[in-house]
Amino acid sequence: MPAPDSPSPPPSDGPKRTWAYARPPSPTPANPPTDATTTTPPPANPEFKSNPSLTDAVTTIKPNDFLSVHQTPCAQRGFLTGISAGMGIGGLRWVLGLSLPRAANWAVGAGVAAAAAQYEWCQFRRRVEREKMVRMVKVYNARQAAEKEKAEGGSRGEEGRDKKGEVGGSPEAGKGGWKFW
Question: How far apart are CA 8 and CA 48, in angstroms?
Fold first, then answer.
């Protein structure tokens, strides 16, 4: 019987997904932990396996997953790169004298390798772009805050200079005046 405060498994519509129990739920903002020493580990879930097997992983795959694989980022470019590299390498190996089955093996191997390399390269570029965007947002927010602070501080400073200029009657009286040349 699971502990009363452990997360309950989702309703069973199909095969059990072991990845759903991989991470404990994050603490809610209404009840954050007060100190790192006072936090307790989440209770052990009896259905969670520490080392899921290959069959557990395969049972989590649904037929609809195969229908939407082309919609994942970078997959389409990876597939096209793999197809063209496989055709190029396989065709070249066949023209250079390899038998058709061996050339086909080369084509499949080259296609898979090229698709995986292109997919990983695309994912790397996406990570770099995401990091750049985060930095740009931080810089933009800091610049906006500085401009807002400057505008608030500048309006106060102009009021002070106007008062100094009015008292002295000349622009040099405020010491922020102008010179002829």
Answer: 12
